[in-house]
From TrEMBL:
SMART domains membership: AAA (SM00382)
Predominant cellular place of this UniProt entry's protein: membrane
Any GO BP annotation: oligopeptide export from mitochondrion
Biased composition (Low complexity): 66-97, 702-729
Annotated ABC transporter domain residues: 439-675, 1124-1360
Protein name: ABC transporter B family protein
Residue spans crossing the bilayer: 119-138, 158-179, 230-248, 254-272, 336-356, 376-394, 770-793, 813-836, 889-907, 913-930, 991-1015
Stretches the record annotates as Disordered: 51-110, 675-751
Sequence ranges assigned to domain ABC transmembrane type-1 in this UniProt record: 116-405, 772-1089
Amino acid sequence: MDNNNNNNSENSDNNSYNIVYNNSDISGFVNNDDLPIPTINDELYNLPISPNESYSPEESFELVHNNNNNNKNNNNNNIITPISPISTNNSSTNISPRKPENNPAVPSNDRKINSITGVATPAISIVFGQVMNVFTYQELSKPDFDIYKEISKVTLNFVWIAIGMFVACYIEVSCWSIAGERQSVRCRKRYLKAILSQEIGWYDVTKSSELSTRIASDTQLFQEAIGEKVGNFLHFSSTFVSGFIIGLVNGWQLALVIISITPLIAAAGAFMTKMMTELTKRGQDAYAKAGSVAEEKIGSIRTVATFSGEERETTLYASNLSDALKIGRQKGLMNGLGIGLVFFVMFGSYSLAFWYGAKLITDKYYNPVSHRDWQGSDVLTVFFSVIMGAMALGQATPNLANFANGRGAAYKIFQVIDNHSKIDPFSKDGIEHSAEGDIEFRNVSFAYPSRPEVRIFNGFSLSIKKGQTVALVGDSGGGKSSVISLLERFYDPLDGEILMDAINIKDINVRCLRQNIGLVSQEPTLFGVSIADNIRYGCENASMEQIIEAAQTANAHDFISALPDGYNTQVGEKGVQMSGGQKQRIAIARALIKNPKILLLDEATSALDAENEHLVQQAIDKLMQGRTTIVIAHRLTTVQHADVIAVVRGGTIIEQGTHQELLSMNGVYTSLVHRQQNGEAEDRRRLKSRFKKKLSNGRPLSITDTASISSSISDSDNDSSSNDESATENNDEKKEKRKKKKLEKKKKKTKEKSVPMTRIFKMSQEEWPFFLLGVLGAMVNGAIMPVFSIIFSEILKVFNSTSMYHDAIRLCLWFLLLASCAGVANFVQISSFTYIGEVLTYHLRYFSFRSIIRQDIGWFDMPENATGILTANLATDATLVQGMSSQRLGLVIQNLVTIVVGLVIAFISGWKLTLVVLATVPIIAFAGKVEMEFMSGFSKEGKEAYAKSGQIATEAIGGIRTVASFNAEKKVYDKFKFALSEPIKIAKKKAITAGLIFGFTQSTMFLIWALGYWYGGKLVGEGEWKAPSSDIVDICVPPNYTYGVSRGRCIYIQNSIYGFGQMQRVFFAIVMSAMSMGNASAFAPDMAKAKTATNAIFKLIDKVSKIDPFKKTGHTLEDIKGDIEFRGIQFSYPSRPNKLIFNDFSLSIPAGKKVALVGDSGGGKSSVISLLERFYDPAVGEILLDGVPIKDMNLSWLRSNLGLVGQEPFLFSGTIKDNIKYGKPDATLDEVIEAAKAANAHTFIEELPNGYDTPLGDKYTQLSGGQKQRVAIARAIIRNPKILLLDEATSALDSKSETIVQEALDNVMKGRTSIVIAHRLTTIIDSDIIAVVKGGRVVEIGTHDQLLELNGVYTNLIARQL
């Protein structure tokens, strides 16, 4: 900076000249060789000075600049004039002879200092002015002046600020944290309530799977934008404002010049905010699409696994992530450009400010605030306060990115919240009507919102009298289920009206309307709670006795009681732990307990076996008495006793009447009946004839025999249930064991090792060029402030310089260089680390999803791995880790460099003071460690609590029709609210702790400053720092010594002023380091969250799947014959390890044979298919395919040879063609059409406006049950499997479709090994082998005739269906 200083200081330690003053040892170092003329004798520097020495005005001189001879012979162009020894309170070179006065820029010690956190930082500039006042030559010239005493008084102000800072920081952090959490929770509540308020038609055109993802991810961004980040922004904004106010008060001319630059900063910030908001919105949309894929595919993992779709889904997920990655890169560039501009303008303003300040002094401009010409003290005070304000603006700016992200996320959230629902279940509007039961559809026209061009009803009319049972029959896709949807007000008709008791249902309160209606649908939805709680959805206040009564009526009590936890048994997500028949019976119990006036049954008993169907049908028949009932059934024998049968075709009723009346018409209904009768007659005749021949040694079966058989089978059931009941006597002991296991699991969790950050960096190793750039930018950024401290310490010298304007210009150029470096470094750092962060997010989400999708099905059965929890974690964990390891990593590097460079500067400038200040670092480190530990614990608890609420939301959105039907919106909302009460409790603990620790760390900084200035002043007073010889020679020139004192005092003053400058350099360097440490500690909450998220992600990524579809190893057979053998199988579901499904189960299936599995619901038939598909592995025993254990086979190859059609097929939200091709990804359109024709699906697909390109909509709600089943069958057929697995494959079809599809399946089964599960035995009597499964074993096996000869369980099953 100052060449003279630098040159002369090199040898300044060679000679020491001691002056005794006030019993203090004051040393001045001068090199004789470098001294200019006149030569100074050593004796002159050793004159004793009396403490009471006096001096006259004649001995005082002023150094006045000759501005006309700017830089020529500066040392010779000074006019020495005698002045008054006492002048203004700074060391400015422009000293005028005035009476002593107090500088208004420096307030008195007793001035109140604002303790609000934002104001505390610029308040330091006031205290700094007080400190600087101690070291002015006017004060130092006083004979009784004691530096130690004066500095001790001033540093007390730091203590008062520290106390105020502690209180303010505690209030700021705790209040904003709690406020952010509460607002986030409130937002989540309003968001879910708004979602639940929407009509079902809204779900048809909205990706509901995106909604649950947004609840997790968007609200997280929203929370960040309205929580402590707002507090930070206000904190720094108040620092900015108060800093500028102090600047204006002390010199408005200079302050206004600096303020004029702020529009440029604001423009840069506004540009960045606008771009970030738009890009964030687009990025969140892309992530929502990826989240939709995850939610849909994880929720239907069995279908994905069946068709070996894991790799395809991973690729699809990665494709959506790629879109988000591209947008993220753009965000990084815009963010870097914006913040780079802000810092360039900010440091550029310093250059302008300092140049203009120097000009004001040299041109002797009048400062109206201080009522005198501008002086160095004014410039310093204004400059220092404005610097702090501007720095705060720079610190406030990064929060704008959070606000932009929050705005982008909030846009989608409030788009839903502000959407007014046409059919709002929370609305209190409408008539509170208790239904009598009269229903009328009057000229109704209707089309689904997702397919407005396809009319479902056109002039549909139907009148139903109170207490009537009306059956709707007809082919699949005719509009039967749409009648129920309209009556439930899932949709409103386009034209016409629907009346209930002569009141338009639009005028009836939605909740009241649905309260009068009980619905049992074809595919019942159960929620991931206990059986009792699922039944309680029908009646929220139902007692346990009422629940048991409803279950008994629905014939569900026996199997429920046999479970280890009885009615407290968790059914699993979507009821996955229950068999199809068990789920249906629970759903019927749920409808029964509602005790509705109007009953809607949509294929309510289709999933039940013969006995249960008979018993449940009897219960339903009793329930229907006195109630208006609408029944949809494909099997016409179940509805022939209805009061009215309406034949629906093409959206209108073409025939209507009783069974006999319709038969007499000899129309469509008659043909439907004949078709069904003809289809079943032959099987029945064969069944009866064979049965009569074999039963009772050829004796025909009588009614008495049938009754006795039914009695015996029920007795055997009772025996088994009683055994089960005795087994449940030890339930309490089992519960205790389970509690112990849970505790053990918790202990294991606490012992989990933390994942090293190096694993995260390895994921980003391909981005090393960007990492190097980012690190370089961070290092340059880190060095900016320490370098700034050097430049700033030079300012003090400039104001004492004889060539002030010239030196000021030079410093301005340094500031411009600093501005350029800061701008470029910020751009490079932010854009590079953002790019790395986006790529890291891509990798983390990708590998997390890949790990999830590859897990065995048993893993998904566990409650902690429910779809909602997994998708919520996918959405949030990667973002948290990315945030901490990318941009924040850059900030950490930046802060570390600041600390290192600052400490190096500090040690060089004054090692003693540096060591004293550094001794306080362990206190800060301890506080930071405690904060990290607390935050880590709270973060983990909060994450788990939010995951629970996310699961509730996901389930409710996925089963919205069931939720709406049972008026369960409020129940779901209340559960969601209750689940969110836990995060609020955790947030309060977290906020209080964080506030205390943050207050402690921040106030500690001020206390350290107090210590540093106190000790620094003490060192200056003791002569620790010696002025360079050049300064001594320039100022202490005999015989007329500057400052109006003797030579010895002049040297003492100059050493003190120089020491003050060095102390400032030390302190500024340490302050920058301390601020960086403070900034690093401010990341503690984010670091804690990131640590928890990192552990969770890598635990998931490292999870080894027991049945891994991505493994390329394993045997493959060149030619599959199809021999299957189950050998000594013992098996229980992972989620219910105490409930054995199979115990020594053995079954041999010869190649090419059709094997039927029969028996009551819940006996384990579907588990046979699950084991063969390797959804699970048995605990004991093995399964062989052509003599090779399937465990040793390549999993993808094994499943590619299996074709499965389940009882409840799951279709995806793509087109019909995409869904069929899911069975064979490389299939041509001709193959798709051929498979559809075989499944009898081609005709209805062709009738759709877009044919095979028709999108099915979210949750495939655009197709009827029969249509869905046919598409699923086509998907299995196109696979051309070697082994066919049919689990009630045709149960959802009408008789016509069933006949055609059954013929197609029979053709497909020829020459293939087939396993068929069916409740209707007429469909399997021709099977090569029939195995009766009961109690986890094959109790009978043989052909139909052979089993009849045994006169055992199979015979009883046949008798039950005759």
